[in-house]
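Lab meeting, action items carried over

1. Structure of the two-component assembly. Owner: GW. Status: complete.
Input record:
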Amino acid sequence: MEHESDFRDHLLVVSDLTKRFRRRGKEFDAVSHVDLDLDEGDFVAIVGRSGNGKSTLITMIAGLTRPTCGTVRVQGRVVGEMTDMELSRLRNRTIGFVMQSQTLLSNLTVLDNVVLPAVLFAERHSQRPADQSDRIGRPDADGIVPDPLNEKAMQLLERLGVADLAGSYPRELSGGEMRRVSIARALMNDPRLLIADEPTGDLDQESTDIVMTLLRQLADAGTAILMVTHDPEALGYADYALRMDAGVLSRP
Amino acid sequence: MSMESHITLRSLPRENLKGKPLRTAALTIVVTLLSLALFAGSMLSMNLDNGMRSMERRLGADLMVVPQNSASQAEALLTSGSPGTFYFTRDVASAISKADGVAQSTEQVYISSLAASCCSSKLQIIGYDPATDFVIQPWLSSQFDGDVKDGQIVAGAGVNVSADGTIELYGRDWPVVAQLASTGTSLDNSVFVNRATVPQMVEASAQVSHRVMPAEYARKAVSAVLIKVADGYDPHMVARSITRLDSSYGKLGFVYPGGITASTKVSLGSLVGYTAIVVAVLWVMGVIVLLAVFFSSVNERKREFASLRIMGATRGMLRGVIVREALIVSLAGSVIGVALASLIVFPFSTLIGRQLQLPYLQAGPLVVIGMIALAVACSVAICVAASMLAMRRLARPEAYMTLREGQ
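Predicted assembly:
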């Protein structure tokens, strides 16, 4: 019974999570019996050598990969038992995911890429953040009423130092710029849990500081952040770090 | 004052199509070709079939007896050939009508006009005898309620009648009392007069140029005797009995409209068959190209769709994006295809009929609208089906694995 109440209290509860793969006829655990709890406002980093299961772990948490055994609960609900619609809503509304690889849509501008998650579910169109309500409907100098979603996306791009690229296409961006736009997109729906795979991978020192400061501010404001990183600079912003070694998660 | 717009799931397919202009153009061209082939091929087959059925209805006689060496000209007159003038005398016609097995007979006179101001080519003037006619009158009665009086004309569908309701022939204006519906045969370029008007026309021709036939023949010339055979008689049997009436009748020409219909049907059947094969081959090739284009874009789009899944798109949403893209491309392509085919099929229908040497009758507007809808629907359906096949490979559940491929 104590466990049941734990599931409900924590934002994220990972229990005995395992992912088994077969390589050259031999089975091995990429992720082995991992337990992890995360609450709102937690900022946790996972470190470890490449190929030790870090990315596999976070994709199972986001419901992008099915575990071999074990469960992931987000807000008390088991991810593996969700329908496609429920899981998609969870990924859209509750979880923000920053990928290690480039995932911007090449046919859309930077601004449209960032806005897109906010328009996937129709009912979100009518939802406007309370702090923006006083600005909605006020036309600019040309008589055009700004769109609240575009405005919000522009604010995020501004905070990440890439607002001037809003009208550009991904092919015109550097790796670091794409990474920052991806982070803006992951934050568009104000996720309660942000999962970031190497968010500072392609960034220079200055950009790393901008991104990590923003993530720290988000955590301080109540967003739970789970970050995979190799960057010692980024580690300093996290509350604590966990080590992943041969699929086993432990506190160093 | 206007509201700034933002991207929506509904506008995403349009952005995707704009972002890949080459792929979009390739798909549009393929669908254009598919709908063009289907619509043009179907219209061609349908119009030929219409022409055939119309010809069958117009050939109300079982046997036509024409002068020596005139049989091929008479056949051409019934299908799609050029006008001609040929005749024998009325006494021959009277003798023929008394032959064994003749149930009903009527005489017609054919005169080929000079190029008239009404028409792009020569007109066939057909004089018929209202008292005995059983071929022209039933057809006329569906369009014209009354008798064609001396000097009056009934015009075929292809004849241009002037605003004052006349046709100028041999320097004289002839009043037109009715215009017939299109048949798709050379009868569309004919005018019909009663037998008594023929001498007036012959006289008129003598006033402006050469006389179309000698004055003494104007009242007794007969170009064809059309015969309905009695029950139990075969047209060939009746033809043999006619040749036995007089030794000189052996050289008369005999035309069997049923035979013309049968041979035209054979030519038409093979043409429709070839058309169907060409359309089928084009469709098979088009579908292969469509599948190739969709499947070649699958690898390129795996990452795009995995990204959408990661940001919360359901499989239904992905399907919606793919289907809407296919709908936009296929609707545009099929409408262009039908429009291009229409530019060929409709303005040049007369020329097509003439080139094919087969009766060619344009289908009515409702049938055409139905065919347009069918061509568009088939093209859209095949494009959407091909895109859905490709989609099956895109909507795999483990989207993240796709993004890690090649890392």
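2. GW to write a short summary for the group page. Key points so far: DSSP finds twelve helices and twelve strands in chain B. Chain B has two domains: 12-54+265-404, 63-255.
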